[in-house]
Write a structure and sequence with these properties.
InterPro entries: MFS (IPR011701), MFS_dom (IPR020846), MFS_trans_sf (IPR036259)
CATH class of the largest domain: Mainly Alpha
Organism: Actinomadura gamaensis
Radius of gyration: 20 Å
Subcellular location: Cell membrane
Keywords: Membrane, Transmembrane, Transmembrane helix
Distance between the termini: 34 Å
Shape: globular
Order of helices and strands: HHHHHHHHHHHHHHHHHH
Number of domains: 2
Membrane topology: Multi-pass membrane protein
Strand content: under 5%
Length: 405
């Protein structure tokens, strides 16, 4: 492990909350697939399974920033303990409704409750890093890079784990383990009081409504994250469809793993550097690079040639997402940090769901090769929005820094 990461994990209490946070957010790559595998097994319909999963995703997008706002205001422990407990009850309701042949409509409120109580644990972990690194010489970029690697590991391991459990043990097993990860990791995370950021009640005179959206720069950043998420979701579907079209469907996971490996490699490299370029310039560069590197996958026609091509394309992910998190940290007040970071996660998730759906429609209509045009188009749009709005974001960032000082 390179020196910045060794130093990072030497921070008192860091290893404990990193471990708890890793377990707690394993479910983020498992619950969607777990719902599809369970519901399709008991109903025989992927359509119903998909709509239940989508219900959960929409509810999560609505609930996660709100629970993060409460965590900023009242403290992580006070919010997390009842939240993950309610989440366990909601998933028990969902699993029971499916397994014991409850009326079909019960799956939808159960899925909605599960989504509303799902925790954007990655945002909570990053907020805790911001707290423990305050006053140290360790840059937050190293922490964001480290967490980006953790996310990639989760998105490689989680789907394989939930699929193996659902197909090899019981259709409900994968979803049950995913829900257990949220509960166990969340409760363990909540117990770590020494590294918990202090609650920051809303100050008199600050905007009561709108939360982080009261910041105009967030209105620029949000569509960029949405389009970036669309890239991720579309790549997943396009990759699976391409592998199947080439006669290598069992190796679809390897193809997507190469994309994740590229991102993880870039994250390690990014966090180990001492950057002189400003955050906004790095974010702009990453956005443009993301679009440029998605051109080759549209041109490749051989499965084995596609593996290194998507690895290279993945190299642009972390240099885009990491400075994006850094900009949000600079743009929002300290008392809204968890909410701001949760907004990034949920916006990317919404984009990913939309990207998967859109790419799937293109696959059905025009074939697997054409579907790689979806992530490319989304990346180009994200780069254009970044180019158009980065100056305003930069001005707002400088203003926020001046106020903080």
């Amino acid at each position: 492990m390179t020196s910045p990461y060794r130093t990072l994990l030497a921070v008192p209490g860091a290893r404990a909350f990193v471990t708890a946070g890793f377990v707690g957010r394993m479910s983020m790559s498992m619950v969607g697939i777990g719902i599809v595998l369970l519901v399709s097994a008991v109903t025989g319909s992927y359509g119903i399974a998909g709509t239940v999963s989508a219900t959960m995703s929409v509810a999560y997008a609505l609930g996660a920033p709100l629970s993060a706002r409460f965590a900023d205001r009242y403290g992580q422990r006070r919010v997390l303990v009842p939240l993950v407990s309610a989440n366990a009850v909601a998933f028990t309701f969902l699993i029971s409704s499916a397994v014991f042949d409850a009326p079909l409509w019960t799956l939808y409120p159960a899925g909605a409750l599960a989504g509303l109580t799902q925790v954007s644990m990655g945002a909570w972990v990053r907020s805790r890093w911001s707290h423990v690194l305050t006053g140290t010489a360790i840059p937050m970029g190293a922490a964001y890079s480290f967490e980006a690697v953790m996310d990639e590991l989760i998105f490689v391991a989680g789907p394989m784990l939930v699929t193996s459990l659902a197909t090899g043990v019981h259709p409900a097993a994968g979803l049950a383990v995913a829900a257990s990860c949220t509960l166990v990791g969340g409760l363990a995370f909540a117990r770590l009081r020494e590294t918990e950021p202090p609650p920051r009640p809303r100050e008199p005179g600050t905007a009561a409504r709108g939360g982080v959206f009261a910041n105009p720069a967030i209105w620029i950043m949000t569509p960029i994250f949405l389009l970036t998420g669309l890239v991720f979701g579309a790549i997943d579907v396009s990759g699976v469809a391409f592998a199947e079209a080439q006669g290598h469907k069992p190796l679809a996971g390897v193809l997507l793993g190469c994309y994740a490996a590229g991102s993880a490699t870039a994250a390690f490299w990014y966090g180990a550097r001492n950057w002189r370029a400003s955050l906004d310039r790095r974010f702009l560069t990453g956005s443009v690079l993301l679009a440029v590197l998605l051109v080759p996958p549209l041109l490749v026609r051989d499965f084995w040639a596609m593996l290194p091509v998507v690895f290279v394309a993945g190299l642009a992910i972390s240099p885009t997402i990491i400075p994006g998190y850094g900009l949000v940290e600079r743009l929002v007040p300290a008392g809204q940090l968890t909410e701001g970071l949760a907004l990034v996660s949920t916006t990317v998730s919404i984009g990913a769901a939309a990207g998967a759906s859109l790419a799937g429609r293109v696959v059905d209509a025009y074939g697997a090769k054409a579907s790689f045009g979806v992530p490319l188009a989304a990346a180009v749009l994200a780069a254009l929005v970044t180019v158009a709005g980065i100056r305003s974001v930069s001005k707002r960032e400088l203003s926020s820094q001046t106020i903080a000082e």
